[in-house]
Write a structure and sequence with these properties.
Elements lengths: L6 H16 L4 H12 L3 H22 L13 H8 L4 H11 L6 H27 L4 H11 L2 H4 L1 H25 L1
Helix pairs in contact: 1-2, 1-3, 1-9, 2-3, 3-9, 4-9, 5-6, 6-7, 6-9
């Protein structure tokens, strides 16, 4: 994308990424969506990632059942991440990458999972600021972005996983209700 991505661009990309999550798309397919949205520059990717975080936060606020929210009404990204991931994930992640012809050690897989955990923590703070103290959200994003690249690079992904989990649970619930 030659120009700075817009919220409309991010909404379109978010819809596409959620469909990809439902059909277990490859990492390459998802990366293509991200490059198309943010371009190949670091600035473009940061802008795109922050817009995606905003879009996925909005989807979560609209679609997350109350049972998966904190007492403050904020979607519980930690609980949703626990549903989406399990302890054997690092070994499976390495196996998937090796099957794709990529070299990846167990240590690197664990480091990536640790970054995702950090992103989950930041996602919860992002959602809290967005819902409970919106006038401070921009300052939070600036501060968090200065402290760690996780804010710009991984928070959107944490929110995306939470959105995909909420939608998968809703589809499962609908299928069960259709049987009854």
């Amino acid at each position: 994308m030659a120009s700075r991505p817009t919220l409309d661009d991010a909404q379109s990309a978010a819809r596409e990424l959620l469909v990809m999550a439902a059909r277990d798309a490859t990492g390459e397919e998802m990366a293509a969506v991200l490059v198309r949205l943010g371009g190949s520059t670091r600035k473009g990717q940061v802008d795109a990632n922050l817009l995606l975080a905003e879009v996925f936060a909005g989807i979560l606020e609209d679609e997350c059942p109350v049972i998966w929210c904190t007492t403050e009404g904020v979607p519980d990204v930690h609980a949703l991440a626990e549903i989406a991931h399990d302890p054997g994930e690092a070994h499976r992640y390495v196996a998937l990458k090796v099957a794709d012809g990529q070299e990846l050690s167990l240590a690197e897989a664990k480091a990536r999972i640790a970054r995702r955990s950090s992103a989950t923590d930041l996602s919860m703070l992002y959602l809290r600021y967005r819902r409970l103290d919106p006038e401070q959200l921009a300052a939070f994003i600036d501060d968090a972005s200065k402290q760690t690249p996780v804010m710009a690079d991984h928070v959107w992904g944490s929110l995306w996983v939470a959105c995909a989990t909420v939608r998968a649970m809703a589809a499962y619930r609908a299928a069960i209700e259709a049987i009854d």
